[in-house]
Amino acid sequence: MSSEETRPGSPSASPSDGPSGGPSDSPFRHENIARDEAPQFVLPLVVRIEKAEPPARTDALETAARAVLVILSDERSLGDGQWSQAMRDWQDARIRKVVRRARGAEWRKASALEGITVTGEAAEVRVFPPVPLDGWPKELAKLQVSGTDLDDPEPPAAPDLAGPVLWLSPDVDMSAGKAMAQAGHGAQLAWWELSEADRKAWREAGFPLSVRTAEPARWGKLTVSGLPVVRDAGFTEIAPGKTVAVEGIERIRSLPRPPRA
């Protein structure tokens, strides 16, 4: 499912910019014409959903969030890496993510394309370097966006407080694909809040994080607490509004520092 945001920090933004944490040049601000005029790119993600053994919903959401972090931190995305220009172009425009599903031969073909597969408890998500909005590889373009409805067989356990919690709005009904894109947005907001040392520590720890749906009372407090909040543009599936609050970024800053080389 496709998703793009209208809120939060850019890679160079200060956490204190703006009353809701979002700077005036945020790629998620609806009124930012400059970003609309830039060439538009999208970050493709493909979730493996086999008929017999689909992943649990929460596992898929958390795996998608980690997949976004994995490609953001990959050496090919940084400096003069082979993906770095595409990553810069993507982040200079609207931050779009599209989640498609695959199984069997479709998954094998997708896995043969340049990208990174990230695994959770059982979920598998492959993330690819950004592509032009109308320039998808044919192997990915033919994959279905709809049909990513997943369930949790058991209620999710308490969130892992070794890392941040990406709290989903209890007021917004989203397919698993849409929620995966939103979780990816939330993880990216956390990433942008961190120093290079914090990012390295988070990566070395395996990007601990949790995705949970907030209770209504908690959600109300989260969205007025100054935390980073994802605001979806409302172009697909849901109306414009707040979808994810990112709580606990300070836990990343408390992770052990990797030894210096």
What does this structure look like?
The protein is of the alpha+beta class. Helices cover about 30% and strands about 20% of the residues. Strands 1, 2, 3, 4, 5 and 6 form a six-stranded mixed sheet that branches. A four-stranded mixed sheet has the order 8-7-10-9. Helix 2 (about 55-75) runs parallel beside helix 6 (about 175-190). The relative contact order is 0.20.
List the helices and strands and how they pair.
Blueprint: E1 2-4, H1 33-37, E2 41-48, H2 57-73, H3 84-92, E3 96-102, H4 104-111, E4 116-119, E5 124-127, E6 131-132, H5 138-141, E7 165-168, H6 176-192, H7 196-204, E8 210-213, H8 216-222, E9 229-232, E10 241-247, H9 249-253
Parallel strand pairs: 2-3, 7-8
Antiparallel strand pairs: 1-3, 2-5, 2-6, 4-5, 7-10, 9-10
Helix pairs in contact: 2-6
Structure at a glance:
By secondary structure, the protein is of the alpha+beta class. The chain contains nine helices and ten strands.
Number of strands: 10
Q: Report the sheet-strand fraction.
A: 15-25%
Note the quaternary state here. Answer: single chain
Average pLDDT metric: 86
Largest sheet: number of strands, sense, barrel closure: 6 strands, mixed
Structural class: alpha+beta
Cα-to-Cα separation, first versus last residue? 41 Å
